[in-house]
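Convert to structure. Protein one:
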Amino acid sequence: MVDRRSGCAINLTLEVIGDRWSLLVIRDMIFGGKRYFREFLDSEEGISSNILADRLKTLVEEGIITRSGDASHKQKVRYSLTEQGIELLPVLAAMSAWGVKYLPVTEELSIRAKLAAAGGPKLAARFMNELREEHLGQPRTRRRGPTVREELQAAYEEVVARKRRRA
């Protein structure tokens, strides 16, 4: 059992996921679909391998993600979100909305946050159900068309393409 500083809900949450790198790992799993160590290393923010290994270990110990072997390769480890990790999606969405409102974010890196905010709780619930299918193996719901992640990625790619045409 980890010794906690206080019983305050905000403090306890910050003790589990409050550092920059843990939140970015969770972000990459939710919004980027990343599951493997090397994929996390490729993030724009440039996390070092020793910090990444430490954060992944902590997130596993705290029950936010799980770690399992990959059947396709003996030495590969795949990480999956737990229900606790999936339920962080609205927290990250709220942080993104705050960042869009108050910080100098770029258009291409803020489009997902804007769409998530516009989609509200309904979009978040749909996305969380898709994450449960992907990470927890829950039965697939019958839905046609792109996933939420695919919709957000398409919007991102559209902004990037538009900016390239202007340049």
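Protein two, convert as well:
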Amino acid sequence: MRISFEENEKDVIFLIGDFDGKYVPVFKSCFWQEENGSYFKSFPKDSKYIDNAKENFRLHAKEMFDQLGYFSECKWEEALYDFALRMKENMIDWWLTGSCAACIRGIILKPHDVDAMFSSKDVDRIADLFPDKIIHPILDTNGRHKRLGYQGFWCSVLARKN
């Protein structure tokens, strides 16, 4: 899997090329766009910690997509613990969603990421807590709230000790 980046006047474009075909459904499920046999997503150039996101994506994209495709294990308990601890230490309200929320309630699933929701007023504080972990910039969901999960905290990166 080849990871590269391009820039235009306003965006940084994350590009994925030279990948095994087994990843195509994974890319599509994460809303990556296809063009000429490669997949891409664009993020505003001025996104907070964009350089960290680029470096983490370059280092961990394959591992992340392996987890998303259930080709490798996701250490979601460790990732959730790290996330929850940082949020608690900084007194930021959040709530767990997705498959991890179901698992902690006793439903047997195999999470591939940690999905969390929080108030948009806390997005900058949260970005400041995780510059070493972020893989995609945190994006606004039309002003309702900011969402992490698809666009931020993957088990492989959260659970990794620095």
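Residues 2-68 form one domain. Strands lie at 2-7, 11-17, 33-35, 38-44, 95-97, 115-118, 146-148.
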